[in-house]
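Quick question about two entries, pasted in order.
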Amino acid sequence: MAGLGALEQVVHDRQMSRNRAKEKTALEERIGYRFADKTLLERALTHISALSGASRTNSYQRLEFLGDHVLGLIVSDMLYRAFPRADEGELSRRLADLVRKETCAEVARAMDLGSALRLGSSESNAGGRLRVTILADACEALIGAVYLDGGYAAARDFVHRFWSERMRKPLRALRDPKTMLQEWAQARGLPTPDYRELARTGPHHSPKFRVAVALADQPPAEGLGSSKRAAEQAAAAAMLERVGVSVDKTNG
């Protein structure tokens, strides 16, 4: 019986390996790039939860770091060429919109990247393949992997393929953190965020405010500012960062 169990495990492992190879090949077809070094692709698709205590360097985290900067450079070059009359402020706003986590996650969904990810069972069961932060990080890791495998030209072609159309869209209107947090909460059926002044310090002519914002199922987040409104905005920005939402910025 023990021998039969071992044989079944070998058959299962081989089938899983074949399925994994098919998933990666299908992804290569969807993104229009074939890797010479398949280990780079595998690493770009591996979440830390799938490593069972192995080194974090075997996950996509290092590639994500690289891909983030490669993406920023390529998109900056695309914007510089596409909008010759735009000033630095507009270019920075467009760049921030195109490299934000939500945009990277949209690109990941467009290429069905989630289905090819290698996740631990708990992360997979918790819906990790649909999570914005995971999709965005894996998308950046994939860019880093393409850059290492095929050089700058390959990475540039990859980014152009998935970002050119998005780049041509009208510039997204900036929203302040309080508005963004309220919209985020409403979209999930949560109560309106509650702001509370914790302290006011400093002289009357130059006060400093400390404010906390409370949101269902989240510990309070705090912010400091020279006015109560500024402190509320800082608290909202801190809460947004905690839940994985990029805050709109006037500069890149």
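Here is the second entry:
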Amino acid sequence: MRGERQPMEAVLGDMRGRLPGISRVALVPLLLLGVVSAIAIGVVGYRLISASGAFAVERVDVTGAGPASRVVERSVLTIAGGKSLLDVDPNALAATLGALPRVQSATVDRAFPHTLAVHVVPERPVAIAPTAEGRVVLAASGRVLGEVTRGSQGLPVIAAAPADIPGAGGVVTSPGVLQELALAAAPQRGLRFQVIGYGQDGLTARTANGMAIRFGDSVDVAVKLKVARSVLRRADTRVQYVDVSVPAAPVMRQDTPDPLTANAPPPTAPPIVTAASSDAASSVADAPPAESIHTLFG
């Protein structure tokens, strides 16, 4: 039938019929030579097209990067600008972009004739940490995103020693700081944490209105936040302190003492120490929570 592929025996037989005197053994090198010649022509053609500038990278289309779009675009043009799309390795370029501080991951595709399409999954800033040089923004992943910007000024400040915070692009490994970041990254839904610390009694946060909430650790932090919000909704008066380290048995202290517990000692929250500066850190280290916050925020 027409269109069916002929077996090699038929091809060789046909060629022997057309070229009498050529043996089957002699035809094999001729076929191999033809294949090699075709590959060589293809390679030469590829190189000629690549060098001609027909597909030179002239434009970068960045999506998903948000404020980091310009940085990503500049990085791509620095690496691939003017090169042929045929010479760009999308996977290698995506890996390079993933090393940028505010980029969690990236994908790169060729969009002929002159465009590289880049889609970015950005890091999510969740907290501010003090360092010896100033304050930096941290992502939920623990990555250091860089200096504080106008858009990140409302994030909570976490307690951390300067040695715990690497340079921009580095990733935090301190277990205490990672627990603080886990709390900062959880949906707070109106609690508005201003400071988050990790001390001898575990993980504690202080809200903008001065209330302290003790979580113990970041295990089941979403459940603990839900319990804290439930407790606060049912409180009759302003609450000073809530302990949800055991979510099934929350503890609350209000401004108005309960007659049944009027003589009970007040609960204590761990001091929240931030290293905004060496002087502030030393003056706050041994202070109770209220004095620590007062020292840092006035």
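Reply: Residues 108 and 118 are 5 Å apart (CA to CA). The helical segments are 8-18, 24-52, 69-80, 90-97, 175-185, 221-234, 278-284, 289-297. Hope that helps.
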